[in-house]
Amino acid sequence: MKTQIWIPVIAVVLLAACGGSSEPEPTPERTKGTGSLVADMKTKEARAAGEAPPVARGTFVLSLTSKNAPTKEKYAVGQPCEGFGGFADVKAGMEVTLLADGKVVELARLSAGKVTKSVHYGTSAHFDCTFTFELPVPPDGEFFQVKMGRRGEQTFRRSELLVPGALTFTLK
Fold this sequence. Notes:
Blueprint: H1 2-18, H2 37-48, E1 55-66, E2 80-81, E3 95-100, E4 103-109, E5 113-121, E6 124-136, E7 143-148, E8 153-157, H3 158-161, E9 167-171
């Protein structure tokens, strides 16, 4: 008889401990894993053995024109740069996400931008602001999507991700 009374009490206590907050759960900054238990185990084993997963290296080129450029020096090759106006989200720290089957498997951030090409005419300047990023590539999986912040995504085969220069994105 005493056991029957305690079961509902324990159930109520457990339910109360599981939640009750009206605030949403925070979104994690990084979720690792491919969604495949075998692939996740291989990645963990490789990292535990000191083996680094292969890395995809990419560039994101923002091609911009600045009217009323303050000085030629501001947009000279080698100078730091970032997006402005409608491209203000393109800057150091913008997320680059690697997805497999719609799930985030790796997360990187853009480096600081550098002017890599610059043409001045009158008081205007046209320049390319180039950012770099590196994404570890999981050992398994055939197709991956690389998502550039809110600027869209492209699908690649695993083998393509590891080809130098394959991950070059340009936004004009």
